[in-house]
Amino acid sequence: MDKVNFGDELVTREEKTRRVGGVFSSVASNYDLMNDLMSGGMHRLWKNRFVAKVKPRHGEAILDMAGGTGDIAFRMADRGARVTVSDINPDMLAVGMERAKARNIQGLTWQVENAEKLSFDDAIFDAYTIAFGIRNVTDIPAALREAHRVLKRGGRFYCLEFSTSEWPGFGELYDRYSEHLIPKIGKAVAKDEDSYRYLVESIRRFPRMDAFRAMIGEAGFKSTSVEPILGGLVAIHGGWKI
């Protein structure tokens, strides 16, 4: 039977999808606080840079996949885009909807979707964004093909994701930090050490920047690009449907 990695463990595809769902249901309520603690608040700067790269425009239809708690969608809605926030996990979407209500952010559409098999028609979005979500997808090539399918001709794809820093020594230092400290922070703050251990393992197993850029091209995108941040600890990948 075909097996895939759930962190460092080999499981069936169905089991991975189920267990990833369990992870994000568990961490949903503390997700944003943990992001601040794990990144020292830098995730906010990375997301600002990401949205600046996307360049959302007034009236554009944008699909924010794995949009969860709304961080990216809120930034794009502020620029006048019509954003559909989609996530496979309803618990994450529920947190995002509560945050939107508290901030009085209007005009967002919230929809449970599987990135590997979207319910949307072909060629209806001007842009597709996914931030810190693609590495948790069971079949990444399928998700990239679906992103390509739902984009209009001339539409753009952007992905913000952890990768591997190419700065000498820094990557190894971050590996030690993430392996030993992040699960402990998860245990202390979110009362969930195992979920944060999985998230660390999923980062380590994600393809390197050039390999992921090649995958985007194989899905049909042209003019693919990658912008490393902190030497590639985080990277913004892009591509165009032409």
Produce a short descriptive summary.
With 242 residues, the chain is α/β, with parallel strands linked by helices. It is 46% helix and 24% strand.
Mean pLDDT: 89
CATH class: Alpha Beta
Radius of gyration: 17 Å
Number of domains: 1
H-E order: EEHHHEHEHEEHEHHHHEE
Q: Which second-level CATH architecture applies? A: 3-Layer(aba) Sandwich
Look at the structure and name the CATH superfamily: Vaccinia Virus protein VP39
Side-by-side strand order of the widest sheet = 5-4-3-6-7-9-8
- The coarse silhouette is globular
Q: In terms of per-residue confidence, which ranges show pLDDT below 50 for 5 or more consecutive residues? A: none
The CATH topology name reads Rossmann fold
Largest sheet: 7 strands, mixed
Number of helices: 10
Number of strands: 9
Beta-strand portion reads 15-25%
In whole angstroms, the N-to-C terminal distance is 37 Å
Pfam family, one: Ubie_methyltran
Function: Methyltransferase required for the conversion of demethylmenaquinol (DMKH2) to menaquinol (MKH2) and the conversion of 2-polyprenyl-6-methoxy-1,4-benzoquinol (DDMQH2) to 2-polyprenyl-3-methyl-6-methoxy-1,4-benzoquinol (DMQH2).
EC number: 2.1.1.163, 2.1.1.201
Organism: Sphingomonas caseinilyticus
